[in-house]
Design goal:
It is a single chain. By secondary structure, the protein is mainly alpha-helical. It is built from nine helices and no strands. Helix 2 packs parallel to helix 9 (168-193). It is globular and about 55 Å long. The N and C termini lie far apart (39 Å). The protein binds protoporphyrin IX containing FE (HEM). Residues 38-39, 42-43, 45-46, 49, 82, 85-86, 89, 93, 111, 114-115, 117-118, 154, 157-158, 161 line the site of protoporphyrin IX containing FE.
Length: 194
């Protein structure tokens, strides 16, 4: 069963994209398919980012250490959907006008937060290979702490987008707070034990 977990997870992670392509091609999307693509890729990027952050707490609570092998895949899928999300923003929202994109990043805090989340994901994705992990040694772990900043920026991007602090964005903010809180408590308990 475990042998198939990796390919099953890989295929499952592609389902949101497959559904999107299917819905757009068969006319099952909403009246605004470009918006469907933008919103679906954004939410799945955030979901995968939070799922990758959940691996360590779940491992520590359950003792199921094998889960670590899925963390990189989840992180890379977060980046994959973020790339699609940003490309769909550039194409459908800004029609490839680079000056407008920059003006948007500077003027709208919600876009600044999204851009921050995205830019921080780039070095994480690039250095996710075994070669980079060996080359960077301890610095790899330091660098990969950026994932917390990226997740905070991603959740802020979502919360800011809706302006009123209710509903789904709050749900994701609470999940992130629990995941980060777990790490803080874990560290404090470990240093207390020492
Ligand atoms: C350059 C970077 C980014 C830009 C320019 C950008 C832009 C946008 C835009 C224009 C929307 C739609 C707003 C609306 O129509 O109401 C949106 C929604 C969203 N974005 Fe981003 N985004 C960026 C990066 C990210 C990243 C890295 C994540 C995930 C970590 C993310 C997650 C989301 C989410 C969750 C939504 C809302 C989806 C929903 O309402 O269901 N975005 N983004």
């Amino acid at each position: 069963m475990i042998r198939f977990a990796r390919p099953v997870l890989f295929l499952a992670a592609l389902l949101p994209l497959a559904w999107l392509v299917f819905a757009v091609l068969t006319g099952r999307a909403s009246a605004n398919p470009a918006e469907d693509i933008l919103l679906t890729t954004g939410i799945w990027s955030l979901r995968f980012l939070l799922a990758s952050l959940a691996i360590t707490p779940v491992r520590r609570i359950t003792g199921w250490h094998r889960l670590i092998q899925y963390r990189r895949m989840l992180g890379l899928f977060a980046f994959f959907y973020a790339v699609l999300h940003v490309l769909s923003y550039i194409a459908f929202d800004r029609f490839f006008v680079l000056g407008e994109i920059w003006a948007d990043v500077v003027k709208r805090p919600f876009i600044t937060a999204g851009m921050t989340a995205f830019v921080l994901m780039i070095p994480l994705a690039v250095t996710s290979t075994r070669g980079w992990i060996q080359r960077l040694g301890r610095r790899w772990q330091l660098l990969h702490r950026l994932v917390y900043v990226s997740a905070v920026a991603g959740v802020l991007h979502f919360v800011w987008k809706v302006k009123v602090v209710i509903g789904e964005p709050v749900f994701y903010a609470v999940i992130l707070a629990v995941l980060l809180g777990f790490r803080v408590v874990w560290r404090l308990r470990r240093s207390g034990a020492r």
